[in-house]
Every structure is written in C-alpha cells, then in structure tokens.
Amino acid sequence: MIETMVGRSARPDQTNGHEPFRTETATDRVPAAMLPSIISVCNFKGGAGKSTIAVNLACALHRATGKAGVLVDADRQATAATWAKAGLLPVKTVTRLLHEAKPEERYPGMLWVTHIKGLAASNPFVVIDLPPGLQYSIAAVTTVSDLIVIPVNPSGIDFHSTSGFIALIQKSRELRRSDRPACVIVPNRLDRRTTIAHKLSLYEQFGEPIAPAIGMRTAFAYAFDHGQWVGDYAPGSAAHREIDRLAQLVLDGACDTGG
C-alpha cells in the first residue's frame, strides 16, 4: 500500500531541469484498436505497484478515449478507494472485494465474476485493482478478464512469483481454447541509474508481451497524496508519459497473443 505523506508542495518529474516537458498524452493520438472490456491489474506478490498502475491506467484510458470507464477496488487494503476519496479522479470508483476462496469451493469467486460482468455490461471499460496472494480465487480473474496487466518489480523474488502466475494464465488459455485472457508484463519501479537494458532482458523469460518500463517516480506518491491521477497532478511529467505509453499499448491491441 502506498504510504501517505503530507506537506508536499513540489511536483517532481515535471521538468527536465531546464524547461517544462511538452504535455504529449494518449489523447493526442487516435486509438487503433478496440478497448478491452475488462482489464485486471494483478500479481501474486504484494508491493508490485498494482494500485498505482490500476488507478493511473484507468484515468489515462478515460482521457484517451473520452469513455467513462469504472475503476474497481477488489483489494481489502482499499488503496484505490482511498485514492479516489477526494473525488478528483476522472473515473468512477467502486469496491467489489475478491476474497481468497477455500480449497473445497468448486467455483471460487463466481459471484464476484457476476458482479464484474454486470459492471462491464453497463460501462465502456472496467479496470480492476486486485489483491495479492490469490491462489484458489485466481481462476475467477482469468475467467472474467480480457486483459491482465502484471506489474513486476526488478527482483528475483518478483520474477519467481510472476512465473507461477503466468503459468496459470497460459493454462487458462489452454482450457478455454482461446487466446484470452491476453497479458502484458509491465517492468515497474525501474531505477534509471542502473543498467536498464540488462534488467529489461530479464522480463523476456515470461514469453508474454512486455510494456515500456515504468520508472521509480515520486510523482506517483505525490499524486496519491493529492487524490489525483498523475496526468492531472503532474501533466507532461515522466511518470505521466510512461502511463500514457502503457495506455496506448492497451488501445493499440499490442498486448494480444494472437490466435
């Protein structure tokens, strides 16, 4: 969960030290493909940055398409719901918690799936911020999702955890005899002072599309503190541009596995 800090006034990442960045956003481009109806942001491991990406991706997609999507907080930690409390996000936020199922449950999370499908039927798109640590309920996520966005921090522990999650997604495709759910790996919280090329090559092991990297940006934490998405809090910043690139990847259909 993002730690709340108060008393901030500066807006980091908004300039390059000389001139303000030109605000070039996904709204400057025309979406080239159909927007996935249900987008889940998920990983087995906690602390991967799921809430930050879910909130900002939902807002970026809204700004890029003009469509009034909905952000779903499915995590009992309620980071997304807390982010939205100020009422400044451009998307509606609702809470639909997904709890871990018991091993003996035959259809884990199916009531939750019904709720999510209901939201998708009445909204242009749904972005879900999911809890970590799901095991038996993960079938509900792979069943309902058109696209699963997986933030992965550059550490061996995160890579190990993600490998198991990717295997479940690929197994779900086999059982459904479908290319759904599509999946994209998001290299997250990369430190630009390190060797980025080497770290990015580590993400290729998953055999899934890889999004442009998102750096370790303080602008995201400041945006949370102010109840805004980064595109409103720090327009044109590096953090804003990185989220917009992820949104455009989704809109372009570049996450599809084909088939």
Task: Provide a descriptive summary of the structure in words.
The termini are far apart. The chain has helices spanning 50-65, 79-84, 110-122, 138-144, 156-176, 196-202, 218-225, 230-233, 238-251, and strands at residues 38-41, 70-73, 92-95, 126-129, 147-152, 182-190, 214-215. Helix 2 (79-84) links the parallel strand 2 (70-73) and strand 3. Helix 1 (50-65) packs across helix 9 (238-251). Residues 1-33 have low confidence and may be disordered. By secondary structure, the protein is of the alpha/beta class. It has nine helices and seven strands. Helices cover 37% and strands 13% of the residues. The protein has one domain (34-251): P-loop containing nucleotide triphosphate hydrolases (Rossmann fold, 3-Layer(aba) Sandwich). It has a seven-stranded parallel β-sheet, with helices on both faces.
What is the CATH superfamily classification? Answer: P-loop containing nucleotide triphosphate hydrolases
Portion of residues within helices: 25-40%
First and last CA, distance? 37 Å
Q: How many runs of DSSP E, i.e. beta strands?
A: 7
What is the name of the CATH class?
Alpha Beta
Number of helices: 9
Query: In CATH terms, what is the architecture?
Result: 3-Layer(aba) Sandwich
Mean of residue pLDDT? 84
How large a portion of the residues is in β-strands, by DSSP E? 5-15%
List the secondary-structure elements in sequence, H or E: EHEHEHEHEHEHEHHH
Q: Low-confidence stretches at least 5 residues in length (pLDDT < 50)?
A: 1-33
User: Radius of gyration over alpha carbons?
Assistant: 17 Å
How would you write the strand order of the largest sheet? Answer: 3-2-4-1-5-6-7
* Structural classification: alpha/beta
- The overall number of domains is 1
Biggest sheet layout = 7 strands, parallel
Identify the overall geometry: globular
